[in-house]
Design brief:
single chain, about 325 residues, mainly alpha, two-stranded antiparallel ribbon, disordered N terminus
């Protein structure tokens, strides 16, 4: 891909406004019912095998939807490897040494290509895989809308400009989600994705020893929980060591919110949901009513899945790279 085309694409991306209304008219349930009727069954089967090998892969796969959809819409751009002409999203600040299980998406794609070549987009695979990871972890089931195209490029800068830090507070998160037409309730419910999985000591060590530059621990943290984390994440220790995001890290339930009420949130961006007045009420409701949390979570995931950039795309044969067709042709650019 020529430097000129790359520059043109990046300029175009810089002007994108991601919206839940753009380019979503083709998204619908049962999109592949005629072209690849076994698509959703194949996806669930591969995700189930991956989670049998490693339970944590469920949480990792689910997170991919968040990190893909918030950056120029749900277009599979997150999955693209870097090239000599393009810095993609995998090495962005919020993704490097954090996101994982890309190989699981590769497995899904390989299975689908064998069954229905060049039919199911990588963007749709991310959406289906996230839903199935939640379901197979004990969470709710929902129907997903499909029909997305895969992006022709990716941007590390675009990811850095959008994705929040684990140090983010509730005000920042509310404003971020508002940009995507996601409400305060949506934001709190979607934060419940941390019901499963693990987080790195890198993301919590400041809360243990130097919250807000005070040289002291976060006063919102339960003292006994802090002692537990002190043992896992000692000052000067290995910051790649991981701890559980809630007390039931393999089960998708409302324990995450119960933990927040008890001052046992792992990330600052989690615990702040309970200490901040505008979000505290939702945390309390979800901690007491798992069904209400599940309903709100499903609604938020569907709304997030509608985020689109309106850019042209393709059905990638390999989720890690664009197809061989010239980008200039796909964008109708005259060379």
């Amino acid at each position: 891909m020529s430097p000129f085309v790359i520059l043109l694409l990046l300029l175009f991306l810089s002007k994108i406004t991601v919206t839940p209304d753009a380019a979503t008219t083709s998204l619908r349930r049962s999109y592949y019912s005629k072209t690849c009727p076994e698509a959703e069954t194949i996806v669930r089967s591969v995700i189930k095998r991956a989670m049998i090998r490693e339970t944590r892969s469920g949480a990792s796969v689910m997170r991919l939807q968040f990190h893909d959809c918030f950056v120029n819409g749900c277009d599979g751009s997150l999955l693209l490897d870097d090239t000599p002409d393009m810095l993609g999203e995998k090495l962005s600040l919020s993704n490097i040494n954090s996101l994982r299980s890309y190989e699981v998406i590769d497995e899904v794609k390989e299975a689908l290509e064998e069954a229905c070549p060049e039919t199911v987009s990588c963007a749709d695979i991310v959406i289906m895989s996230a839903r199935d990871a939640v379901l197979l972890s004990g969470g709710p089931k929902w129907e997903v809308k499909l029909g997305r195209k895969d992006s022709l490029t990716a941007s590390q800068q675009a990811s850095d400009d959008v994705m929040p830090s684990p140090r983010a507070n509730a005000t920042y998160l509310i404003n971020l989600f508002k940009r995507f037409n996601l409400s305060v309730k949506d934001m709190v419910a979607l934060s419940g994705s941390h019901s499963i999985g693990k987080g790195r000591c890198f993301s919590v060590v400041f809360r243990l020893y130097n919250q807000s530059g005070s040289g002291k621990p976060d006063p919102a943290m339960d003292p006994f929980f802090r002692e537990e984390l002190d043992r896992i994440c000692p000052l000067g220790g290995d910051e790649e060591v991981t701890g559980n995001l809630d007390a039931t890290p393999k089960i998708f339930d409302n324990q995450y919110f119960i933990d927040l009420v008890n001052g046992r949130g792992f990330l600052n961006s989690d615990q702040t949901l309970y200490t901040f007045p505008e979000t505290r009420g939702y945390v309390e409701v979800f901690s007491q009513n798992q069904s209400e949390f599940f309903r709100a979570f499903v609604e938020g995931m569907i709304k997030m899945g509608d985020l689109q950039s309106g850019l042209p795309g393709e059905i990638r044969r390999n989720c890690r790279k664009v197809n061989d067709a010239p980008v200039a042709t796909l964008l109708n650019i005259e060379r």
